[in-house]
Write a structure and sequence with these properties.
single chain; alpha+beta; 4-stranded antiparallel sheet
């Protein structure tokens, strides 16, 4: 009988004695029953020990205890700050855990081994097979995955131990984590910029290919923008024509030129006067001729030439020589002054510079 069995037998004998004693006192057993109870309590354990000794055989007690004791309790080893590779080169996880194991039954010819080393190697191999397939940006998520994968007690590749891991922690070095945070910020900023760029490209394409394709499309778009205010849209036709022509890099169509001569609702300030073109010179002469006709100075009237000469002299003071010369060519003042025979008094009362002089009867003398 092993030591554990002996201890159990003695404990049960004492317990039975106490129960029988309580029962005898409550039932008022006779006096002769108490010696018989004592003999039974002593004889039963002795007989049990004798029978166990007969069944034990030739093995020593210590060997028998080794055969009947439960397996050796699981052992453990702490692993700290072991670098495990991630999916990205040069970004390693930092792994820590408590490795636990218990030995399996070994054959007589098995070599002597270090169970802690075998257990740690097996746990790290299992952890590495997971971490090398994971990106380093989420170490806490990988940590929980390792906790689930390594919490199962599995045999090592040699078949000598059952191994598991507890208290697992997984992290990145601080400088690597800061670098990944900066990269994440850059990627997010780039995504926002790409979105804005695509939005601007889509908007430009919409304006150039749809809204500002021609003046008609721009007018329809502007009319919809202004809630069907036709008057405002009509007033802005010149602006829309200019905008459409600028968007398509073309000249404003001639049918819209009269709408943009004076911008709607705007008074231009003093600007440098541009050099006159031939079209502008003809337009000035035409306006002057319309003025003369409105005054009643029809063709052939000598006053037309006289006024043209005077206006030409004034225009020359404004550095508009080409316009002045055009007026002189148009109305030919010199020919009018030299060839006028219908009114002799006109040439007699004309000053040398071509300006009309008062008749002699209306001139004042120096003494008057």
């Amino acid at each position: 009988m092993t030591t554990g069995c002996k201890t159990t037998t003695v404990f049960l004998t004492i317990l039975c004695g106490l129960l029988l004693t309580i029962l005898g006192l409550t039932q008022n057993w006779p006096t002769f029953a108490w010696p018989a109870l004592a003999v039974i309590l002593v004889g039963v354990p002795a007989a049990a020990f004798k029978l166990a000794a007969l069944r034990r055989g030739p093995l020593p007690v210590d060997v028998q205890e080794q055969r009947t004791d439960p397996p050796v309790e699981r052992r453990e080893h702490h692993v700290r700050h072991v670098a495990l590779p991630s999916q990205w080169t040069d970004y390693d996880f930092v792994f820590s855990a408590t490795v636990r194991w218990y030995p399996l039954e070994a054959a007589d010819n098995d070599p002597v081994l270090n169970p802690a080393g075998v257990a740690v190697e097996a746990v790290l191999a299992r952890a590495r097979s997971i971490t090398e397939q994971r990106e380093p940006g989420r170490p806490s998520l990988v940590q929980h995955e390792l906790s689930g994968a390594l919490s199962r007690m599995l045999p090592d590749p040699t078949g000598h131990l059952h191994i598991m891991a507890e208290d697992i922690t997984l992290a990145l070095p601080e400088h690597d984590q800061e670098r990944l945070d900066r990269l994440a910020e850059v990627r997010k900023d780039k995504a926002v910029w790409e979105h804005q760029r695509k939005y601007e490209q889509s908007k430009r394409q919409y304006l150039s290919e749809d809204v500002l394709k021609d003046t008609g499309s721009a007018v329809v778009w502007w009319l919809a923008k202004n809630d069907d205010h036709v008057e405002k849209t009509v007033a802005d036709l010149g602006l829309l024509a200019q905008l459409t022509s600028a968007a398509n890099d073309t000249d404003v169509p001639e049918r819209f030129l009269h709408l943009i001569a004076q911008p709607h609702g705007e008074r231009p300030g003093p600007l440098p006067e541009p050099a006159p073109t031939f079209e502008q010179e003809l337009k000035t002469a035409d306006h002057f001729e319309a003025f003369l006709n409105s005054m009643g100075f029809t063709d052939g009237d000598v006053r037309r030439a006289m006024l043209a000469k005077q206006i030409a002299d004034v225009i020359k003071t404004q550095d508009r020589h080409e316009t002045a010369e055009d007026l002189l060519r148009r109305f030919d003042p010199p020919a009018s002054f030299t060839s006028n025979v219908d009114d002799p008094s006109a040439s007699a009362h004309t000053a040398p510079d071509g300006t009309p002089e008062a008749p002699p009867s209306e001139r004042k003398t120096d003494g008057q």
